[in-house]
Amino acid sequence: MVWVGRETGIFTTWDDAKRQVDKFPKAKYKSFKTKTEAETAFSGGSPRTYAAKASNSSSSSKSNKAPTARTSASNADYDVVIYTDGGCEPNPGKAGSGVAVYKDNALSELWYGLYNSYGTNNSAELNALHQALLLAKEHLTAGKTVHIRSDSQYSINCITTWAYGWKTKGWKRKTAGDIKNLDIIQASHALYDELKDKLIISHVSAHIGIEGNELADRMSIYAIDKKDAEFCRYPDPIELTGILSLRTG
Question: What does the subunit comment say (predicted)?
Answer without folding.
Answer: Monomer.
